[in-house]
Amino acid sequence: MTRGRPRGGSDSRERILTHARQLFAANGFRGTTVRAVADAAGVDPALVHHFHGTKRDLFLAAIALPVDPGVIVTAALDVPRERLGEAFATVVLGAWEAEHRPALEAAVRSVLVDGDGELVSSFLGQVLIARIAPLVDDPPGSGERRAAWAVTQMAGVLLLRYLRPVRPVCDEPVENVIRAIAPTLQHHLAGPPPPE
Amino acid sequence: MTRGRPRGGSDSRERILTHARQLFAANGFRGTTVRAVADAAGVDPALVHHFHGTKRDLFLAAIALPVDPGVIVTAALDVPRERLGEAFATVVLGAWEAEHRPALEAAVRSVLVDGDGELVSSFLGQVLIARIAPLVDDPPGSGERRAAWAVTQMAGVLLLRYLRPVRPVCDEPVENVIRAIAPTLQHHLAGPPPPE
């Protein structure tokens, strides 16, 4: 790819995404600026915002997620406290089992299996855990750990059901998966305060 | 590497391991025979057994695990039913936090992140889950699913603590990790029967 004056719009749009993927993978979410992506792509930062919105939007576009997990999870956790685990399991597994599955699988596989670990850390830590934490912060100060332990349970299921399929995790009906992990997610999100 | 007549003993020993890694990664644990490894390495099957014992021993040598997880877990789960979760968490986290950690991390990273997914499936499914299942098979027939769900909780913690470090999972004291997941492991291993 040659640098220099940006050519047509869709060309710039794709070039920005390519460089964003490389920079997010190398430096993580926090360590990457819109200006750095713009510089790498040879465009003005305003053009990055024009095509891709905020840095967060750019990140989601770069890892090609078809849905914003933060938005989905936030909506899902707007339920009575005693149903948090079931709601979290239902929405996450629901997204994976629906039409989004190929795109989600490709995106997570690319960052988890092929990609840079920092990107996973950035995404899970700075986007997902941070988004869940205030919703389950009872008693105050426990939200981040509650969110983190819940994410470990969910990550293990996604790993062994979709990315590295292991029987019987990968061939159980989705309803059984939800019922199996709803109680443990409930424990993490709303059970006794996590150890500190 | 040239084929043909085996040279010295330690040379054959290493060559067997190299081919075993390749075949286990390509065909999984079940799909790989000692004879196939011997053929690939250009040695007699008896020499494979002489150097590396059973197929299972060969597999463990090939992925360079310093401890046999099946043996460790079996020993750990020889506790009263109400302490299964705590025992499982303690022994697995204990192994990862001890002197084995660099070797375990390298082994799991190589099969999970760099290697072939089939190797992970084979190991977790055919070695670990199958080993745990009969120890927690109450009511009869539930053991495999109990073991599998417990492994999802443990796998998520190992992933986010050691392989793709995410705060706060990666920087909590190990005692807190054990206390955080012991109740959810207990639920999977000995709680209400898993959905079927």
TrEMBL record, chains A, B:
DNA-binding positions: 33-52
Domain HTH tetR-type stretches: 10-70
Keywords: DNA-binding
GO molecular function terms listed in the Swiss-Prot or TrEMBL record: DNA-binding transcription factor activity; transcription cis-regulatory region binding
InterPro entries recorded: Homeodomain-like_sf, HTH-type_TetR-like_transc_reg, HTH_TetR, Tet_transcr_reg_TetR-rel_C_sf, TetR_C_16
Name by which UniProt lists this protein: TetR family transcriptional regulator
Organism this protein belongs to: Rhodococcus rhodnii LMG 5362
